[in-house]
Every structure is written in structure tokens, then in C-alpha cells.
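Materials and Methods. Structural model of ABC transporter domain-containing protein. The 304-residue sequence of ABC transporter domain-containing protein from Nonomuraea rosea was retrieved and submitted for structure prediction as follows.
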Amino acid sequence: MSASPDAVSVSPDRVSVSPERATAVRAAAAGELGGEPLLSVRGLRISVADGSEVVHGVDFGIPRGSAVGLVGESGSGKTLTCRAVLGLLPAGVEVTGGEISLRGTELTTLPAAGRARLRGTDLAAVFQDPASYLNPSITVGAQLAEVLRVKVGLARRAARHRAVELLHAMGLRRPEHVYAQYPFELSGGMLQRVLIAMSITAEPELLIADEATTALDVTVQAEVLELLTELRRDRGLTLIVVSHDLAVISQMCDTVHVFRDGGIVEAGPTRQVLRAPRHPYTRELIDNHERFGIDRVREQRSRR
Ligand SMILES: Nc1ncnc2c1ncn2[C@@H]1O[C@H](COP(=O)(O)OP(=O)(O)OP(=O)(O)O)[C@@H](O)[C@H]1O
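The predicted structure was written out as C-alpha cells:
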């Protein structure tokens, strides 16, 4: 990062732009520029165990069926924001202000059991390290079938049948064989497909992919991104894609929200933000992306 942390202001409220521009950033971030939001996050504040605030009043909306990218440097608050939406904040970390509404239902005041019920059935997530979410001593098929029994209520035989179907639908060849394999026998890309299968068993409307392809090699990454795009197209899944990789965001997302230091500094249609970034920090992200040899963003920008 060439600029010091203080070189760019951290939230639309503190950026020196015209009031009209600040309003436009907030409106874009809140999803008001397109469609009825499936998810609406307003003024979200998150504090950690020592009392310090790490997310400072974030606003955004996710229109149903859209793919929304969250980008920004490490530690800018993307993951905690997603975990707050899922109701899965780490111990000692808590929401201290704001609202998170899913189809009009306020989530921050729901009891833990209610939040747990929503996970899987309405909201789901896949993260960077799929192996850590699987039990190493149980076959992946048995684990997937168990989710189908618990979350969908299928009987044992039906769950097995559906699990094989899902593995097939995730693009895994020889799904019967994969069903009987243990996590250590599968590659990272295969494990991520299994996790994606698990996450969509109960047909949630919103899937959060938090650096879900970061650890995969480029070809496998492209295949998993393609799978997510297909799920969006074929099942109407709404996606939140968290990534450091602007090429991933450019490929997948209709809109992008740029996080910095716990706030959103710029938001809007991906193409517009990447082509004509308005905020110095967004420009810096794009320049860094290009400087480090990942030229796909510029290629995609110039092709359009
Ligand atoms: N369990 C925790 N306890 C204390 N502080 C935390 C905890 N988790 C995250 N933080 C802090 O909260 C801030 C936001 O973290 P977060 O993980 O949301 O950032 P991020 O943008 O997702 O980063 P990355 O891209 O590296 O995942 C950071 O300053 C981080 O150090």
C-alpha cells in the first residue's frame, strides 16, 4: 500500500466530497440504485473484546438475485460484517449498533436459536479453508447426507440419494465414488465444491463466499467461480463475494462495495467503479492490483 492509513478518509461521512456525492455513495451502498434489497444493512457497528470499534456504521443493500462484491485491504471489516449478517461473530466481538434486515425481518434482535435456524435455510456461507469445516474421520457423503437429514428433514435413503445428486450437480465426476471418500482424499477445489453443496442443501436465498477461492490455483478457482455463477443463474441465488482479487469481483459481481478501515468509501456498479474509480483508495487498489502483475482487471476494463 503506497498511501499511509491516514491518507484517505475512512467513511463517506469523512471523505471530503460534495454532499451530493456523499449521498450518492450512501444510496449506492444501501442498494437504493437498483431493486428491492433482499438484505439491508444500516449503520452497522461492530466492536471487539477490548471495546474498540472496528466497523463504523456500514450501510449496504443486496438486491435479490444480484452478486455483490466486498473488497478492501486486510482488516477493513469485510469478514466481520459478513459474520454479523450470519450471526456468527467470534467470542467477544459484538454488534453495537445498526440494523441487519433480511426480507424485512430484523436479525440483530433475533434470539440465537432463530439465527441458527436461518443459517442454511435462508443464509449460507463458504469460507477459505473448506477442510477445516469437515470432520476428517467421516466420509464427505455421510457429512452431506447428515446436513440433508437435519436441515431438510430427509430420511436416510433419500438423503443419500440427494447427496449424490448434489455432488453431481456441483460438477464432481463419479459422485458415488466421491460420496465414499474422506476429506483428505479430495483436492481443495473438490472440497470447496462439497462445502458449496452443503451450504445450498436447504436452498438458501443468500450465499456468502468469503475468500472462498483464494487458496485454490487459478484454473480450479475459475471452475469454482463458474459453479457459483451457475448457481446464481439456475437457482436464483443471491451472492455476496468477499475477495482481495479485483478480477474475481469484476467477473462475478454487479455491484461492488469498497471497504477501508471499517467503513465503505465507494460503492456502485462494478464496471463503473473499476473503470472510473472516484475515491483515491479505490484507485490505489486498482493500481496495486495491476502493478502486481494481475492485469485481468485492466484487460476486462479495456475490453468493455
Ligand atoms: N476475533 C477478533 N477479535 C478481535 N479483533 C478482531 C477479531 N476478528 C477481527 N478483528 C479485527 O477486526 C478488524 C476487521 O477484521 P475483518 O476480519 O473483518 O477484516 P477483513 O476485511 O475481512 O480482513 P481479511 O481480508 O484479512 O479477512 C481487524 O482490525 C481485525 O484485526
